[in-house]
Amino acid sequence: MSSEIKVIFLMGPTASGKTALALELARSFPIEIVSVDSALVYRDMNIGTAKPDEAERAVCPHHLIDIISPLESYSAAQFCKDTEQLIHDIHQRGRIPVLVGGTMLYVKALLEGLTDLPQADPALRAELDRHAAQHGWSSLHAKLAVLDPITAARLEPGDSQRIQRAMEVCLLSGQAMSTLIAEGRNRTSDWRSLNLALVPAERHWLHQRIAQRFQIMLDAGFLDEVKALRQHYPDLRPDMPSMRCVGYRQAWSYLDGEYDHANFVEKGIAATRQLAKRQLTWIRSLDVTPLNAQSATVSSLTMQACESFLAGKALPDNLSFSGAF
Q1: 3-state secondary structure of 95
Q2: pLDDT digits over 284-306, tens only?
Q3: d(Cα 8, Cα 189) in Å, to the nearest integer?
Q4: How far is it between the farthest Cα atoms of the chain?
Q5: Closest Cα to residue 221, out of 34, 27, 99, 47?
Q6: pLDDT tens digit string along 42-74?
Q7: Given its phi and psi angles, is residue 91 left (phi above 0), alpha (psi -120 to 50 degrees) or beta?
């Protein structure tokens, strides 16, 4: 095999077809899949995360799935450390690392580097939580817009987890998180990557798929899964990173009686749409080759792109998609 390490990224918003396409690649190339999904790291969270099932995971080796408890947390820095090691291990086995997922912070950190940000400060987080309880997260979002307008611009006013972290970094370091991240982009790596992104030509198409998948999750027993998590992990709280995953926080609130079933479904689908919107915003900021997720030829074009990349040839001229994503 070539001594040059080549890595394929297959990214995209939730419900865009990444998993199915990655498994197609596995049937044509000697690949191992590295999950780039901050929800798939958690054990016992299978339905709500759309985790690949046993049959899908038997097609080729999968990594960074089911590695921590829902009581634990997993950072972008830890992801980078683990993935760098996996890339080299997979290459040494004579196989191709294919990084699949939609946690775009992880992708950006791996491609561009990640500055050592301040560690979480429980006392400061508690203070921010108290402020949010009294004035709302939109108030903290407005404060963040003053301290770090770049980060605030890409966050929704209700994105509590990310607003809290961005405010924490600003207050602890005295600098905007966007500035610190930009300073860490001078990373160098000993591997070369093909960065592919599945994007919808029409938002309506993606919204339909999100709604359909949410219903499939419900039919598969998603609410029972959340009930089981609450019973199996008595120390689990709704403010933990695992329960902040879309769908889970809405299910938790529903089980606590905060709203009825119809409202739960509406909120769960809306939160997933917002996630997809954020993912597409991240993708626009990266150096990627976009592929039309709706196209009947997306599979064949992906295969062509991978073949050309692995052979050291230029990508096909008809590959890139210039849609309205």
Answers
A1: coil
A2: 989 999 999 999 999 999 999 99
A3: 14
A4: 60
A5: 47
A6: 999 999 999 999 999 999 999 999 999 999 999
A7: alpha
Own/partner contacts of 233-242, CB < 8 Å, gap of 24 or more, are: 233/69, 233/70, 233/71, 235/71, 236/70, 236/71, 239/129, 240/70, 240/71, 240/73, 241/38, 241/73, 241/74, 241/161, 242/39, 242/42, 242/45, 242/70, 242/71, 242/72
* Total Cβ atoms within 10 A of residue 4: 10
Give the three-class secondary structure for 118.
Answer: coil
Within 16-67, strands assigned E span 31-35, 62-63
- 229 Cβ contact partners less than 8 Å away, ≥ 6 residues apart: 44, 45, 70, 236
Strands 191-199 and 5-11: parallel
Residues in the chain, how many? 325
pTM: 0.81
Rounded to whole angstroms, the Cα distance separating 129 from 137 reads 9
Q: Write the pLDDT tens digit of every residue in 203-235.
A: 999 999 999 999 999 999 999 999 999 999 999
